[in-house]
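Here is one record:
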Amino acid sequence: MVQRYSRQYLILILLSQKMNQVSFDYPNKLHPSFVNLQTNQYDTIIWKGGRGGAKSEALACIAITESFIDDGVILCCREIQKSIADSLYSAIVNFISDNKIDHLFKITLGEIVNLQTNSRFIFAGLKSNITSIKSIDKLRVILTDEAENITQQSWDYLRPTPRYGHTRTYVVFNPRFETDPTWQEFVIRADKNTLLTEINWRDNPWFPESLERQRQRSLLGDAGRYNWIWEGKFLQISDASILAKKLKVQDFEIRAEMGTPYIGIDWGFSVDPTAAIEC
């Protein structure tokens, strides 16, 4: 049986005549990130890990919460965004609807405005909009999803851009290679103002059965890709590896009935020969 973290609850006191209370829930492992909304201890918040960790859902939750703080702009971005469907837009709209707070937001195609604070969400791809992003007025919060794809040039433009109020940059990604700019920028060169959290499928209290079936299927295949997809480890085995999807790592003991000799084989491919050795 998998032990998972419980959900935490965040209560927002909204600025209305009735002083409505709204509760949002999120994985316990991300609690320090939500506490930071009050303490402002960190200006850079990193959530890294594999699939199924509820990172995108929690990002929508913390984005909505940020919008109640002041009238600052919240930029939701990724390296390439060909349409609004490629962004966090749908996740944020669904979060608003699921929590029945539609009356507190004005939702149009491409923009969401908090009617209590006038904070607004905008959505953009960095590759095609990086120079115009530098001039966004009142930019306070940056939310980046699938940040493993963001280039160093984009980070160089983006990081110094928020300057309004208590600025925060959220970096959500599944590490791919150690040389990737996002890993180098936010993990290797992390400073005291950075909150780093690793969150994976086992930390998600709502991890669905459908994803569990997919995870179990992945366990039967390429161990390197499984660890990358589900455990947030670096991608170690490339698609070019001949037997990449056929590998299985398993401990065993040599028994007498196995007999001898033992044969080691290096499988050839294309014009490369297959080599075998008896030992």
Remarks:
- Residues 266 and 275 are 5 Å apart (CA to CA).
- The helical segments are 31-39, 55-66, 89-98, 126-133, 152-158, 181-188, 209-219, 223-231.
